[in-house]
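Cast an eye over this sequence plus tokens and explain the fold to me:
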Amino acid sequence: MEQKAASAILAEFRAYRQHFERITIGAVERFRHADWPGVQAASLARLNLYKTHIDRVTAQIGPGRGSLGKVQWTEVKSAYAKAIAEAPDGDLAETFYNSVHRRITRDPALDGERMFLATSFSAGPTPPARESLTSCYRPTAGLAAMVQRILDERAPELPWQDQRRDIRNIIRSLIEARPEVDSGEDFHVEVINALFCRNKGAYIVGRLCLDDPSSDPRPRRVWPLALPLAMSARGEAYVDTLICDEDELSIVFSFTRAYFMVRSPYPFGLIRFLNELLPNKKRSELYAAIGQHKHGKTEFHRGFLEHLRQSSDTFVAAPGIKGMVMTVFTLPSYQTVFKVIRDEFPPQKAVTADEVRKKYHIVKRHDRAGRMADTQEFKDLRLPLHRFDPELIDELRAAAPSALHIEDGQLRIRHLYTERAMTPLNLYIENADRAILTEALDEYGNAIKQLAAANIFPGDMLLKNFGVTRHRRVVFYDYDEISFLTDINFRAVPEPRTPEEEMAAEPWYSVGSNDVFPEEFRRFLFGKPEIKRLFAALHGDLFTPEYWRGLQQAIADGHAMDVFPYRRKRRFSNQPQPIDSHAQK
């Protein structure tokens, strides 16, 4: 029975991985043919895969089919561990097993005898015997020849608009960024063999390595390197820019972006390579970035528990204005906030807890356009009670008593979301000088516009609901009032017909549940007149219903907006302009 259960779980995991890779491999073809509706459909289909395959195997071996007790699960895990010992994706297989176990047993306790709480692959799964992760390129025949080889081999069969122009742009930009490549010093470029596809772009990703003239085989210096590819309106490929900076590449792999489609038979090796390029990124974020968000959750949990063992600070309430739907806390030494849905909401919040969960699910499945934070959902998360500030415990008990259970020195929270910690925008600009204030307000406006271009209307657009990342990007993180932009009725405020209507304290005209009056944004978004005037100069079009209706029409017409993870000034100047450049930042 135990061996049969282990085999069934492994067989379903293999079916999941094959299905996942099949959808992923098709991304290059969708990019080549500029099939943007197909890109969106494939992303959604891939997100649904994990649950589909978990459902299938739990129906096969779960309750009613001869459920397993504690002793049997220990033996199932042992048999499963032996079966995946040589698997190149064994780390993902462990997470899949854990998901099946949790679904079948419904046991909130975490038992290392029956689950893979710690990985069996501390040094990583066995690499594929004939699979090479990267290719090495040296300028032995000249820099131009090397760049052409990279384009031809890493992005084969693309219909190039003007490859010679792109090669010139790449070389010029590379020498400007890293003069070492033009100084006669030895260097090489190491490139990941698979293209990273997402939305309307594809990326060649690797690193530039300055060789050590001594016998040491390790490079003397290393820089990240990425070539974003795009398609013109005529279906011709071009290189849009060159990225050779850790911070800029970090934004490309941001937790605010949709997941990449990149072929990864050996995910651990791919993540290890990316982590060398982006050492400030958590492994959990990188796994999520390549579409393995469930294993990203596993990596987050393991990393977080390890951090708890090595730290001693206390969980406290998160800084900022208290939310009416969520109560939020954080551990100051860890860049994460924990969000728990309140048991009751004030009357002005016409939403239920179930609806809030659905809103967060929408964000998980939708294009976040670089402006919404990714989240991880946890059930029955256990944390050491002694690490909680007493005032926070009181706040949690008052706000969400049904979500809490205290037992054996542990605080068990039945349901919560984790999210990368950011500085609330209202706090960020509180004492900002003119330059920082202007930049932050411009970012805030661009965040709203880019969300709208992705068919998301934030709903509650108060500054407190947006955060600022370490790259000074403004990101939305309060999802309880989001809607699809196309579901909103943007209206102009009607002219009053009488003096009584003009002086009325309440609207004298009818207001539907989905009606929004952009003119009113001026009044309630900003308290200080100076900030209101500055924002109006930067993004005054947001105060007009015509702007929003124009975006709705573009979405209805099937236009997929260009929103790239780098600033306009980074684009090569002689490239085609994006369809909707005002939505790009």
Observations:
- DSSP finds 18 helices and 19 strands in the chain.
- Residues 2-32 form the longest helix (31 residues).
